[in-house]
Amino acid sequence: MPEYNAEQACDADKVPTSKVKCLDDFVSRYPNSYLLKFVYPMYYQSYYQLKNWAKLIEYVDKYVALADKMGAAEIGPNEKVRCVICASGRVFTACRQRIKQRTPRERSQQRTPD
Questions:
Q1: CATH number of the 2-108 domain
Q2: Which of 10, 57, 81, 105 could pair with 22 in a Cys bridge, judged by C-beta atoms 3.0 to 4.6 Å apart?
């Protein structure tokens, strides 16, 4: 329960710089948490707001690697599409390759990203 509460506290923080500090604290306390699938998107969204492109790319890469380990059913088909927001051609290409690897059924269940 403390792990969940820590993740929720980070999610509730709306200031990107303090959110990143909260997330850093969470990851240092729970490096193998199941909740990382929620934490990494918070990281890259915060870095997007801060316009720190290098860190954004770093956390998108971590998220995509986590998605590969957990599988599409755990992460959700739409979540992989969200990683395309970054400007890195390398990450964009990696995301497109992973999206293409999905089954036709998974593709039909995909929603349009926000």
A1: 1.25.40
A2: 10
